[in-house]
Write a structure and sequence with these properties.
By secondary structure, this protein is mainly α. The chain has 6 helices and 2 strands; from the N terminus they run ααββαααα. It has helices spanning 4-11, 15-23, 42-56, 61-72, 79-113, 126-138, and strands at 31-32, 38-39. It has a two-stranded antiparallel ribbon with strand order 1-2.
């Protein structure tokens, strides 16, 4: 059994992080000590590691909570349910990558068009002009 500080140290997170997960329903202590301290077991340790790995992959807390619920009752769920969650996240990431690619291309285009001369004052800067034109087209 672990106290909250010991579990936090094992997972390389803060006690506040564990309290946050508990408050948001991602973590349930396995019990309380006679003094009222939260107690955690190896299942809780594995659960925190699962949460941290899912966060590394960009999953939101609600998605992680859904995956944890499926994991706890795995025999009542299918792999298709789990895959639907990750596929949805992949679709969102693909959309963001496409948007960022478009932004990068537009920014590179106006950056490349700028002479960048130190001698020339910014009133003639093609980047400022391009941004102003984009704003006018937006309105």
């Amino acid at each position: 059994m672990y106290l909250i500080g010991e579990l936090a140290k094992q997972c390389n997170v803060t006690s506040d992080t564990l309290r946050f997960y508990e408050k948001n329903g991602l973590l349930v202590p396995s019990g309380r000590s006679s003094s009222g301290y939260r107690l955690y077991n190896d299942d809780n340790l594995a659960q925190i590691r699962f949460i941290l790995k899912a966060k590394q992959l960009g999953l939101a807390l609600d998605e992680i909570q859904e995956l944890l619920a499926i994991r706890l009752e795995a025999t009542k769920h299918s792999c298709a349910e789990v895959k639907a969650i990750t596929q949805s996240k992949l679709n969102i990431i693909d959309e963001k990558i496409a948007q960022l690619t478009d932004i990068r291309l537009a920014l590179k285009s106006i950056n490349d068009a700028c002479c960048g001369h130190v001698d020339e004052d910014a009133s003639h800067c093609s980047i400022l002009s391009a941004l102003a034109e984009l704003e006018e087209k937006k309105d």
